[in-house]
Amino acid sequence: MDNEVGSDICERCVEIFAIGNELLVGQVQDTNSYWLIRSLTALGARVRRAVILRDEYDEIADALTSALQRRPRLILTTGGLGPTDDDLTMRALARALGLDLVEDPLALEMVRKRYENLARTRTNITAELNTARRKMALLPRTGTPIVNPNGAAPGVVLEVNSSDTTIVSLPGVPAEMKDIFGTSLQPILARTIGSGGYVEHTLVLDRGDESRIATSLQEVQATYPAVYIKSRGQLLEDGAHLTVVLSAGGNNLSVLRDDITKAEGELVTNLQSMGYGVKRIVENQATSLH
Q1: How does strand 10-19 pair with strand 46-53?
Q2: Which residues have C-beta within 8 Å of that of residue 83, sequence separation ≥ 6?
Q3: Using CA atoms, how far apart are residues 288 and 172, in angstroms rounded to an integer?
Q4: In angstroms, rounded to a whole number, what is the distance separating the alpha carbons of residues 135 and 131?
Q5: Fewer CB under 10 Å: which end of the chain, C or N?
Q6: Is the model's pLDDT at 199 over the cut of 50?
Q7: Are strands 144-146 and 155-160 parallel, antiparallel or unpaired?
Q8: What is the average per-residue pLDDT within 171-196?
Q9: Which pLDDT does position 8 carry in this prediction?
Q10: Structure pTM?
Q11: How far is the C-alpha of 69 from the C-alpha of 61, rounded, in Å?
Q12: pLDDT digits (tens, 9 = 90+) for 136-179
């Protein structure tokens, strides 16, 4: 079982914090969390939380402190790395870890190069390292900047040795976040999450009524606790159907396939005995990105 709060690291567990007032007033949709959840699940990770936080120093710091007590293997934040006063992620992270906030020379060089490149291609931008731009190079003392190939604010990695947790702070701009995730973040993901995958099968039923099949789903779920079983209405090409989705993620793909196949077989037998016609659609096969 994954550990929620205690002395043991929650292996392969991930928590995500999307930071920004714009997300909580509806100006911007939080597509980052959805994209990260799908990408991390495909690696076999267990995303235990995904939370949206306001640009408030104490709220961000308290959320990070609480997450560290649960000891996930990886904490990902998005947003709050920019040059304005309401970009507070680094300050809050420093407080949560009890670290000084210092200007990092490598991060400053990344920022400098970004604005030099912009100044060469845009007439209304200078290469000056003003106070707002230098702010993006202020990191918690043990933080390591990671290159942002598509933006000015570097990503940041922090190792929390007391809990074996790695914290990664990514920009909130989706294109920048995805670029870092797909490039410089890959070795960190390999180290923290490892190689793994995800398997998902969907059963399409020929009639509805979730309440009628609830007990059968519960019984199969109890027999195969590693397989997540969820019924839901789904609009497919030929119309609306009641579907049952079986999914599992982890580091052993052969075990995942075996568990899904066994759970599916038992569930299909039970549903057919109740008079349901069942068709299987394989939506996601085992995926390994490392």
Answers
A1: parallel
A2: 132, 133, 135, 136, 152, 153
A3: 26
A4: 6
A5: N
A6: yes
A7: antiparallel
A8: 94
A9: 67
A10: 0.89
A11: 13
A12: 999 999 999 999 999 999 999 999 977 799 999 999 999 999 99
Q: Tell me how crowded residue 251 is: count the other CB atoms within 10 A of its CB.
A: 18
Residue 81 has pLDDT above 80, yes or no: yes
| Residue located via tokens 């990770």 | 45
Nearest Cα to Cα of residue 174 among 30, 23, 1, 14: 30
Give me the domains of the chain, ranges plus CATH numbers: 10-192 (3.40.980.10), 197-284 (3.30.70.360)
**CA quadruple 152, 153, 155, 156: dihedral positive or negative?**
positive
Go through the chain and tell me how many residues it has: 290
CB–CB of 99/106 below 8 Å? no
Helix (H) or strand (E) holding 228: strand 228-236
d(CA 276, CA 150): 51
Is residue 130 within 8 Å of 147, Cβ to Cβ?
A: no
d(CA 218, CA 213): 9
